Structures are given as C-alpha cells and as structure tokens.
Amino acid sequence: MHSLADITPPIALGALDGRYRAAVAPLVDHLSEAALNRQRVHVEIEWLIHLTSEHVVPGVRELTGAEQDHLRAIVDHFGADDIAELAEIERETVHDVKAVEYYLKRRLPAIVGDADAAGLSELIHFCCTSEDINNLSYALMVQGATQQVWLPKATALVDQVTTMARDLAETPLLAHTHGQPATPTTMGKELAVLAHRLGRQLRRVKDAEYLGKLNGATGTYGAHVEAVPGADWVGISKSFVQGLGLTWNPLTTQIESHDWQAELYSDIARFNRILHNLCTDMWTYISMGYFAQVRGQGTVGSSTMPHKVNPIRFENAEANLEVSNALLDVLSATLVQSRLQRDLTDSSMQRNVGTAYGHSVLAMDNVSRGLAGLDAVPDAMLADLEANWEVLAEPIQSAMRALGAQGVPGMEQPYERLKELTRGRRINGEDLREFVKGLGLPGEVEERFLTMTPATYVGLAPNLVAYLDIH
Fold first, then answer.
1. Which of 28, 177, 203, 405 is deepest in the core (most CB within 10 A)?
2. Tens digit of pLDDT for each residue in 368-420?
3. Where is the Adenylosuccinate lyase PurB C-terminal domain (predicted)?
4. Which residue among the candidates 53, 239, 287, 302 is catalytic per the annotation?
5. Among 20, 10, 11, which residue's Cα sits nearest to residue 324?
6. Is 121 a residue of the active site?
7. In this predicted structure, which of 73-77, 271-275, 442-446 has the lowest mean pLDDT?
8. Is pTM beyond 0.90 here?
9. Contacts of 97 (CB under 8 A, 6+ apart)
10. 47 exposed, middle or buried (CB, 10 Å; 0-12, 13-18, 19+)?
11. pLDDT tens digit sequence for 190-214
C-alpha cells in the first residue's frame, strides 16, 4: 500500500490544516510556527534599534532612519524563502532562537555596511535569554490573533444573535424548565440572555492585558549590569516592552509567568461554553419545530432520508468548542506553573495555542452559518402555547395571593386550588375560563384572566431585550 506520508505536497494530519483550512486561515498570520519566527525576528530587530537609539552601550552609533527602515522591512517581507532559510540554520544550531540571531547577522552587513556590521551584530540578542525573545513574541502573537481575528469574529457573531433577539422580541414562546412546560417568554428574550452573556465575556477579552519581560536568564538583569554597569536596565526594559504595545512585568524568573495567558484563555473558554449552550438550545428549538432550516440548493441533509435537514452547523460547533476548551483549559492550568526558575513545559504547551483558537474560530463560523440558515416558525411556537393552558395557573394563583394579602375574602389556598385543577392533566382555554369564573375574583381581575392566553402571558419579556443596549 502506498504511504500517504510520502505524497507531495504533504497531506495535513489535522482537520484545521486540511478540511477546515479556509475557515481558520487568518490565524496562520499570528499563531503558526512561521508567525512565531517572524515575531522573533521583529523583537530582535526592535531590541537592536532600541539599544542603539537609547545609546545604551557606550561608543556604539545610533542606526540611521534608513537603516531602521531596512531592518523593519525584513519583517514586512518575511516569506517562504526566509522560513526555509531559518529552518536550514536551525538544523545546524538545533536551537530556534539562535537560528534567528544568525539569520539577522547574515543581513546586517548589507544594511549598515561591513565596517559597522561586526560591532553592531554583537547587539543582536544582546544580554538576552531565549525566553526574553519568546515571551515577547508569544505576547504579540496572541495579542494579534485575539484582537485581529478572534474578537472580530466573536463580535460579529454576538451582533448576529443580538439582531435575532431584537427581531423576535415579541414572538411568544413556551418556556421549558427541567424539560417541562413553564411560564411563557419570548424567543427574543431567550436569545437576548445568550447575547448578553456572550457580550460580557467579549468585554473581558477586549480588556485583556498582554504582559512581557526582558530581564535575562533568571530575571535579575545580571548579565546586563555586568556588561554595561551604568545603564538604567530596568528603565530600558520597561520602555522597550511598552514600546512593543505590551504591559511590562517587573518581576519574573527566566520566564514571564504566563498568568495573563491563563486569564485570557479562561475568558475565551467561558465564551466558548456559553456559545455551546446557544448551540444546544438552538438544536432543541429546531427539533421542536420552532425554527425551520433553509437548505441551500444542492445540499444533502441525510444520505438516506431525503426529507431531512440536519442541524449539522450547531453539532459541528459543539464538537469544535469542546476541543478548543480542552486545549484552553490545559493551557490555563499548566502555563501558570514552572519548576523553580524555569522548565520547558510551557514551550511545548504554547505551540497548541493556535489549535485552541482555531477550533474556537471554526465553531463560530459554523454557528454563524447555522443561524443564517434559520427561519423562525411563530405558528409552531403558538401551537405549543395553545396546547399548554395550564401555565396560566401561575399568574392566577399569584394574583389570588396578592388579593388575599389585601384582605379580599375567598382567596384561601390559591396554590392548592390551581394545583388540583392543573397537576398531571391538560386543560384547554374553556376549562380555565370556567374555573376562573368560579373563583370569586374581583370583576376587573376576573376579566383580565378571562382574556389572557398563554401567548399573551409573557410579562415584560419583549421589553427586556432593550437591555442588550446597556452595558
């Protein structure tokens, strides 16, 4: 049998780089191995520029504006040839960050001239441990993936749910608590609950901090102080990290502690779990006939049953959210731990961030497409309401309690009397109206209940959707 592993171009092992590539492709610019190396190149170049601009090392000239532009252009034009070259260097060094250092040193003479290259090249990776470069690179990668890919996708999805909630704000719906018919609501209000929950998590993600450090092998600036004793290394580090658009962490071991990552991944995982809740609710509403799926031309719902249109978008989303959360949970749990001043578990763990984000983005794509393919069926919702007049026992007995508290005679044991009428049996509108007439209610109260139906017993549900505009 021919080995599929030998086929060129290589066949993807995972679904994200195979079947679902199109949906997650924007993350490649941020969370791939190539993106990691590009950010390493970026950080190393900015560190060199920072050192010379701040005149940190006595006697070293400042890079000209043109030289700085040429260096930054390396990042802007980083592509396939650069990826291949770095891979070739790494095969020799067996060290990924050192490969980046050598890669940049090859390019420096053409930018600053042979005469200055020898001295300036020694400031590439100056006083840095690999984790100084890596922690800043990962912070920039995750920041970019979150702000430029994940958040826009999540925001658009929440807006989509919000629009549905507003459109269906007044569409009455029989609620189900514990799977049993319960106090009516509206479909819009129920969707608004989910949109509100998702929106809260979005705001937490938007407010996330991305921390970074540059302080040497054990966070002491030991090599820095010995190399250039007179420099303000704490200030230099702080201004450099903040200049990258990150929050400076003043106290670390060899590694930045990754607590910010754990916090961010927990928030994204919570968003995922709420979205999973939306998927299971929508799946259930579809199964109850409250939404009809609009099948596109040429699609197949079932391979054997022509009538079926399966809610596959929501089912696929559930599976991808579960995979994403499994990874986000283990990232959150493990990245905050490190033996003494450093171990390498975080390095291997962080290589899975892209996969965690990928399954979340893929799930959101599925949910969005699933929602776009739905039409509400108010008649089906109304039919279930009409079949469950017993839900009006709640407002009647509540009104009787209020009247009894006010001293109106004949309002005794309202709960028990409604329980006897409705528990374990179905009643229709006529049954309920006859019962109401025999309760001895004041005229205006009796009239209110004689005209009430399950579809009109929705309380303030339509108005509550407006709270989506209040953060």
1. 28
2. 999 999 999 999 999 999 999 999 989 998 998 999 999 989 888 877 887 88
3. 338-458
4. 302
5. 20
6. no
7. 442-446
8. yes
9. 40, 125, 130, 133, 134
10. buried
11. 999 999 999 999 999 999 999 999 9
CA 403 – CA 393 distance, rounded (Å) = 15
Go through the domains of the chain in sequence order and give each one's CATH number.
Answer: 27-128 (1.10.275.10), 131-378 (1.20.200.10), 389-453 (1.10.40.30)
Catalytic residue among 178, 307, 348, 471: 178
Our answer to whether residue 2 is catalytic in this structure is no
Residue 175 pairs with which residues in a beta bridge?
182
pLDDT tens string 86-136? 999 999 999 999 999 999 999 999 999 999 999 999 999 999 999 999 999
With beta carbons less than 8 A apart as the criterion, state whether 62 and 56 touch.
no
- The position carrying tokens 């279930």 is 384
Q: Give the C-alpha separation, 254 to 24, whole Å.
A: 33
Could you tell me which residues are beta bridge partners of residue 293?
374
Q: What are the Cα distances from residue 307, in Å, to 8, 400, 428? A: 41, 49, 33
